[in-house]
Amino acid sequence: MKNIYKLLKGVIVMMIAITGIAAHAGHLLPSPAPSPKYVLYPPTNLTENTIEGCAALLTWDKPHNPGGTTPPGLLGYRIYRDGVLIHYDSDPDSLSYYDYVDNVGIFTDSVTAYYDLTSYGYPGQYGESAAASVVFFTSCGQILPFFEPWIVGSFSFQMWSFVPSQGNWVMNYTLGNPAPTASFSGAPALTNYDHTLQSIHLECITWTCANIYLEFDSRLTITNPTSQEKLITEIEYNATWHPKDTLVNDISTGWVHNKIDISEAGINSIRVGFRATGINSADIGEWDVDNIHVYAVCFKPPNFNLNRIGNSVHLS
């Protein structure tokens, strides 16, 4: 149903684009509109090439009038995704845009040309052409298996993010299994805090005949055993976060290996999250998370039988 909704919305965007748009600072152009001989020509030959299955490289040609020359007043281009302006390129000679979407679904992209209307008898006004066309592309997540040993020493390398902010999550270059590792530090002290380190979307749609597992190593050091500070391992699918495991500050540990069956996510796109939350972070030394691994294990054949007859073995 979600994909059908996206397609219908794309058709609506296309219908709107065909009518053309003319605006300046959010206001419609003055009435009467320019004479019909003044046409705000759109870009031509808009194409989309999917890059690594998860992004779109948009390319187009310059607008041209019937004489084949570039129309006067061309300032640049506006790029829309699902009818929402996402980028303005002020270079009329720039004819491409890389649209990366950190989400899963079907999206529509369109491009319009943006003009200074002085040459059309409207000094100080600006206008926008109809859309070149509307193209559809499907964005996906990281294909399994996904492994994060932090060997690059960066949250950004595999596009980890923080919700609502980074808080005390840091890259610890002196500890790890082996070093470095992701750490949530107790200092500086935070009260009533809640900060999640979350992965990009991980694509499970191809694993219809497999179990999905999450493995990681964790290490806890505590200051006061209040059991009020928690590290909650969560997975997100169908726009909802689901807690799968909770560690509390009741005892310090060395490195512990954790394995969690997350097959409940089915063939959805998922995220993995490590949520540090509590009353007073000063009651922990740090939470450490290393060697995060999300992978699939295919089901074995059912009803396996072995029959031996003389020197022959029959498997079925």
List the defining traits of the structure above.
six-stranded antiparallel beta sheet, Jelly Rolls, Immunoglobulin-like, flat, disordered N terminus, 316 residues, mainly beta, single chain, 2 domains, seven-stranded mixed beta sheet
Lay out the secondary structure.
Blueprint: H1 2-19, E1 23-24, E2 27-28, E3 44-51, E4 55-61, E5 74-81, E6 84-89, E7 96-100, E8 105-116, E9 126-128, E10 134-139, E11 142-143, E12 146-148, E13 161-163, E14 169-172, E15 181-185, E16 191-198, E17 202-203, E18 210-222, E19 230-237, E20 240-248, E21 256-261, E22 269-280, E23 284-298, E24 306-309, E25 312-315
Parallel strand pairs: 11-17
Antiparallel strand pairs: 1-2, 3-4, 4-7, 5-6, 5-8, 8-9, 8-10, 12-23, 13-16, 14-15, 15-23, 16-22, 17-22, 18-21, 18-23, 19-20, 19-22, 24-25
3D structure, described in words:
- The chain has 316 residues and is mainly beta.
- The protein has two domains: 2-139, Immunoglobulins (Immunoglobulin-like, Sandwich), CATH 2.60.40; 143-298, Jelly Rolls (Sandwich).
- The chain has one helix and 25 strands.
- It has one helix at residues 2-19, and strands at residues 23-24, 27-28, 44-51, 55-61, 74-81, 84-89, 96-100, 105-116, 126-128, 134-139, 142-143, 146-148, 161-163, 169-172, 181-185, 191-198, 202-203, 210-222, 230-237, 240-248, 256-261, 269-280, 284-298, 306-309, 312-315.
- Strands 11, 13, 16, 17, 19, 20 and 22 form a seven-stranded mixed β-sheet that branches. Strands 12, 14, 15, 18, 21 and 23 form a six-stranded antiparallel β-sheet that branches. Strands 5, 6, 8, 9 and 10 form a five-stranded antiparallel β-sheet that branches.
- The radius of gyration is 27 Å and the shape is flat.
- The two termini are 40 Å apart.
